[in-house]
Specification:
The chain is mostly helical and 66 residues long. Helix content is 65%, strand content 0%. The chain has 2 helices and no strands. The two termini are 30 Å apart.
């Protein structure tokens, strides 16, 4: 007998995303140490790289579905 995946309402997912993103930003700016060579500008990599990898995964998923 196949099992159905439980559907999570969109507002719950949206607020979870906002909360996790806020937590990530707080960790980046208040917990992660400042790099000795690049200083504060190095912290953009904590946001840029995961967003770029997510975009690549979404482009690949869209290409596979097309």
């Amino acid at each position: 007998m196949p099992t159905r995946l439980r559907q999570i309402p969109l507002p719950v997912l949206a607020w979870s995303t906002v909360g996790l993103f806020g937590t990530a930003l707080a960790l980046v700016f208040f917990y992660a140490p400042v790099d000795g060579d690049q200083g504060l500008s190095q912290k953009i990599f904590y946001i840029h790289v995961p967003i770029a990898l997510t975009a690549y995964a979404c482009f690949g998923w869209g290409a596979a579905k097309a």
